[in-house]
Amino acid sequence: MRVRIRAVRSISDKITTDKYIDGHFSVLEAYGVTKITSADRSWAENPNVYLLVVESEDGTKVFGGGRVQIKNGQYNLPLEPAIIEKDTRIVDYMSKYEGQQVAELCGVWNSKEIAGYGIGSIFLIRAGVAVASLLDLDCLMGFCSPFTLQNCQRLGFKIIEGLGDNGTFLYPKEGLIATILDIKNIRELPNAKCDEREKIFYLKNNPVHSSEETSPKGEFTILYDLKI
After folding, report:
1. Of all helices (H) and strands (E), which one includes residue 27?
2. How many C-alpha atoms does 119 have within 13 Å on its Cβ side?
3. Cα–Cα distance, 181 to 183 (Å, whole number)
4. What pLDDT shows up at residue 40?
């Protein structure tokens, strides 16, 4: 299998953005999730959103993706309205980042066609951290499922224990648990495992390259194009 992970500014490629949105909604519907802030289409008009899309080599199909969504005066991070009804402490927490470039890695999904290769659980998240570094951001935040928590921590994310129930929320619906995390130093990644830090820095310094990978489902190739 050969797939491409490509970074694109959402407002610059409407066709790819629409494919990403349609695929994300389909995955959410399969899990019975019909109301989620990170799936709101309004972000598609936000000039500070960068998509990561997993697509076929010829670009005709989108198999998954995620977004690096930067906070600015007009747009909050998707996690802010999602949390405020459950924990108003998010307001004070976000005030700590005033004057800094902070973003959320959100809307990460993959289709059944690439399930089992680890693309959504590690490769997309790693690429998201690399794109945040390429954008010279100060902080990257996000929600993760119990399934991806350990991988996120390996990449340098730390649980924000002062929010929710020691960092956990029932989200995006009752019965599902999400943990809120952040990386406070994107440039140096002091909390990342050494091997993961090296891989992220390699992606940053070599945004266009191919990588041969091995998974429980077999060998596959990722063609990276993270130029932004």
Report:
1. helix 14-30
2. 34
3. 7
4. 66
Proportion of the chain above pLDDT 70, given as a percent: 95
CB burial readout 57-73, b (16+ within 10 A) else e: eeeeebbbbbbbbbbee
Answer yes or no: are the C-beta atoms of 75 and 44 closer than 8 Å: no
- One-letter amino acid for residue 59 of the chain: G
> What is the residue type of 214?
T
Give pLDDT, residue 176: 85
Of residues 202, 226, 219, 221, the one with CA closest to residue 211: 221
Q: Of 45, 146, 37, give the one whose Cα is nearest residue 28.
A: 37
Do 111 and 189 touch, CB atoms closer than 8 A?
A: no
pLDDT (tens digit, 9 = 90+) per residue, 48-90? Answer: 999 999 999 998 999 999 999 999 988 999 999 989 989 999 9
The closest of 139, 141, 142 to 188, measured between CA atoms, is: 139
Separation in Å, CA 93 to CA 74, 85, 141, 215: 18, 15, 12, 38
In eight-state DSSP terms, residue 46 is -
CA triple 54-83-62, angle to 5 deg:
10
Contact criterion met (CB below 8 Å) for 89 and 165 = no
CA distances from 30 to 33, 39, 80, 106 (A): 8, 14, 25, 18
For residue 212, give Cα distances in angstroms to 8, 164, 168.
23, 39, 35
Buried b (16+ CB within 10 A) or exposed e, 138-177: bbbbbbbeeebbebbbbbbbebbeebbeebbbebbeeeee
On the question of pLDDT at 28 being above 80, the answer is no
